[in-house]
Write a structure and sequence with these properties.
By secondary structure, this protein is α/β, with parallel strands linked by helices. It contains eleven helices and 14 strands.
Length: 324
């Protein structure tokens, strides 16, 4: 099931080159990472979906609603945590979040009750009566998340939510994002260029690069992507590498031996790639080279490796699996 559908989306700013170029993609339920380097068009895509940039070419629908024609209906169902700070001067945390709740259509008392609930939920319960400009960077990130949640949206768009946070604060906010999906049934679209963080939480990723769509990938399938194997061989390492290459395997040197024992045993590490996932050529190459295999183990690609491979190949047909 697709929640968000984008068809041939092109968005330009004045006479400059398009920030998005004929982007066509779909995003399903759960937590989705929207990945790409700075300037890839991630924030522009989110703001087109939210109806903040209605002057684009193409079609954007969310929950079956048109992003331009049904903006008011969509905003009641969508939460948005922007990258930049967003608050009115002199307002306390509780005042600012309540105000956003009222703007989303909640009655004043309901908005006040919800503001208390979400501020406590994000860990700002002791700071609700402090002015927002007095908050630290980490507190302001939590405050922005509370603003996005006050009206109980079905889907939340997070634009670089971990920006500027120290490691402990990042882990805390990652936990809150997990809870949104796992504990409260929210759908989350998370724009980021920090790949390891996204890999901890997201079920799927969508990749943008230079304003173009480069593929959608289910993280659960990364372990099977590309047929990669970590191999330790004892004996003629060069001969084994030649035999593996002759068998059509892509051979990459592995990490150095982790201890003296491994080095003394003349074991050599390789990463071998066989696109069809068949391990038999690895054992056949070892037999031809007369080496002893000490270890052959499937190797999961990291999200960063997938991302770089997609960009190297220039598009969604780079070999990683498509997500649901």
């Amino acid at each position: 099931m697709s929640l968000l559908r984008v068809r041939n989306l092109t968005k330009s700013y004045g006479g400059r080159a398009p920030a998005l170029r004929e982007v066509t993609l779909e995003i399903g339920p759960g937590v989705t990472g929207l990945l790409g380097p700075n300037g890839a068009g991630k924030s522009t895509l989110i703001q087109c979906v939210l109806g903040l940039f209605p002057d684009y070419e193409g079609e954007v629908t969310l929950f079956g609603l048109d992003a331009r024609r049904d903006r008011d209906a969509l905003r009641r169902r969508v939460g948005f945590m922007p990258e930049a700070d967003t608050y009115l001067p002199e307002m306390t945390g509780i005042q600012a979040v309540r105000f956003l709740g009222q703007l989303s259509g909640l009655p004043r008392q309901h908005a006040l009750r919800r503001a208390h609930e979400v501020l406590f939920h994000v860990g700002l319960g002791e700071a609700i009566y402090r002015r927002v400009e007095e908050y630290s960077t980490g507190m302001r990130q939590r405050f922005k998340l509370a603003q996005a949640l006050v009206h109980d949206p079905e889907i939340v768009f997070l634009d670089e939510p971990l920006s500027g946070l120290d490691p402990d604060a990042r882990e805390d906010l990652l936990g809150l994002i997990r809870t949104l999906a796992d504990g409260h049934g929210k759908h989350v679209v998370w724009s980021s260029h920090i790949l390891p963080d996204v890999q901890k939480v997201a079920a799927q990723v969508v990749v943008l690069h230079q304003g173009r769509y480069c593929g959608r990938h289910a993280l659960a399938d990364l372990a099977h992507a590309g047929g990669r194997y970590d191999v330790e061989a004892e004996g003629d390492a060069d001969g084994f590498a030649r035999a593996a290459a002759a068998a059509g395997l892509e051979v990459h040197p592995g990490d150095p031996a982790p201890d003296e024992t491994l080095a003394a045993d003349r074991r050599t590490r390789f990463t071998l790639l066989n696109a069809d996932g068949d391990t038999r050529p690895i054992f056949a190459a070892a037999a031809r080279a007369g080496v002893r295999l000490r270890r052959v183990a499937p190797r999961s690609e990291t999200l960063e490796e997938v991302f770089l491979r997609i960009l190297d190949h220039g598009g969604p047909d780079a070999g990683a699996p498509e997500g649901p």
